[in-house]
Amino acid sequence: MKIAVAGIIQETCSFSPVKTTLRNFKISLGDEVVLSADAGGVIGGFLSAMEHSCCSFTGTLNAQAMSGGSLSSSTLLFLRKKLLNGLGKVRGFDAVFISLHGAMASDDEPDACGLILEDVRKLVGSRCFVAVELDHHANVTRRMVSAADVIAGYEKQPHDLAVSGAKMARVMSDILKCGLKPHASLVKIPMLAPQDNFLTSSGPMKEWFSLAREMEKDGEVIVASTFPTQPWLDAPDNGWSCLVYADSPEKARRCAEQLAAKAWRMRKEFWHSERLPLSETIAAANSEPKGLVVISDTGDAVLGGAPGDNMSIIAEMLKHDLNGTALVPVVAPDAFAKALAAGAGSKITLSLGGRMSAGFSPRLKISGTVRAFAGAGDFMFDDGRRRPKGRSALFEHGNLKIAILELRDYSINHPSLYQNLGVDVEKAQMVVLKTGSNFQYFKEYQSRLIRADSPGPTQSDLTAFKWEKRSRPLYPFDGIKNWRP
Ligand SMILES: [Zn+2]
């Protein structure tokens, strides 16, 4: 069997003003997609799980970008053309495996992944098998489901990408080897929830995902996926999704409905929050007897698409007499250039941040000392994936140590950002992470985690955004009585 392999990943935050363009994508084409697939990525996981199968694999396109604002229309058009060109060059394949995010939008297409899958189906015809792996923060649409033969979502947050790819390899092999006919049932749940309870290791999310894993033990269920859609996608028909493939339509429908009913019953639990107002956050972190306190800047989560230059937490820190070192990252290419021109050891005043986060953040003038610089290179994930990383500077104002990043890159939530600047992370009192879920890299140092109720395009107060396209009614915005799947 010959399988064409592709991937297009970007998660869109509709409230982020920073547009995503082609420059933001790392792109591989043709054979490179397969030959240099990251072992820790979805495609790498899929290929290594298929290693001993008798299938052959041909790469088409792999395009990966960080979460951010919506894609420009020309970027989406370019990616669609490259994918179709790539598929067009592969002769006589029997199946397509494609890794998508599922919550990607462009300026004029709220369901970019649905459109991509429709393109693929038109090109490959009805007899070709199309298997799709989605991030479980996808907004699954009927268009996606009609165009694919099978779709599965990730099982864990933080995501384990290679395991997700391997899962689809198993699902696909089962279907094709045993000649199964997967019947799909998609149930949309009219609700959204902030990221406060998105971790799948505990709480209501664990309970909900576990039910899907239980269902998959049933011989008639091929794959069951739960999708707590990321809450910053302003798109029609948005909301959480349950998608089940089973041997019969009845079984698929019953399981999808059961999953949906469970999430709906637990909806208030998903909105439970331990966030603290900014003043309380800093006071609590400052009085913690033993660092390191991890402060989650929920409104400026770069992994959710926010810009990374929100100064609200720093503004609050400046009102306090900090007992120990506070580490805070800011994406600010202009301030980085100024620090670089001044040189290490110089005392300067910088206008910092609040540019991309305008409307959510002040722009602050801070005087301090430029202490150190770190060079550009590759950011290495623990699973071996590499992504480009920009230069950084350490800017010190009393106990406040600000890491100024030249680029918005993955190092922003990793201890290596500070270590490369000569800072002993272990001795710090608090560190701000621009994420609502990915605290794993600081786990060995962390004494306490505080979720700060900070403003920004990924803030937890979803009711404060100006929604234009979202589906209606939707919990908790609209009153919904007696909803049933
Ligand atoms: Zn995700």
Describe the structure.
With about 475 residues, this protein is of the alpha/beta class. The protein folds into two domains: about 1-270, Response regulator (Rossmann fold); about 280-460, no CATH class. Helix content is about 25%, strand content about 25%. It has 13 helices and 19 strands. It has helices at about 30-35, 40-50, 75-90, 110-125, 140-145, 160-180, 205-215, 250-265, 265-270, 280-285, 310-315, 335-340, 415-420; strands spanning about 1-10, 25-30, 55-65, 95-100, 130-135, 150-155, 185-190, 220-225, 240-245, 295, 325-330, 345-350, 365-375, 375-380, 385-390, 390-395, 400-405, 430-435, 450. It has an eight-stranded mixed beta sheet with strand order 12-13-16-17-11-18-10-19. It has a six-stranded mixed beta sheet with strand order 2-3-1-4-5-6, with helices on both faces. A three-stranded antiparallel beta sheet has the order 7-9-8, sandwiched between helices. Strand 4 (about 95-100), helix 4 and strand 5 (about 130-135) form a beta-alpha-beta unit. The longest helix has 18 residues, at about 160-180. The model has no long low-confidence stretch (mean pLDDT about 95). The structure holds zinc ion.
CATH top level of the largest domain is Alpha Beta
Low-pLDDT regions = none
Number of continuous helical runs: 13
Strand order of the largest sheet: 12-13-16-17-11-18-10-19
Any idea of the CATH topology of the largest domain? Rossmann fold
Distinct bound molecules:
zinc ion
The global form is globular
Main beta sheet, described?
8 strands, mixed
Number of strands: 19
Q: Considering DSSP H and I runs of 4 or more, what fraction of the residues is helical?
A: 25-40%
**Architecture of the largest domain in CATH?**
3-Layer(aba) Sandwich
Distance between the termini: 38 Å
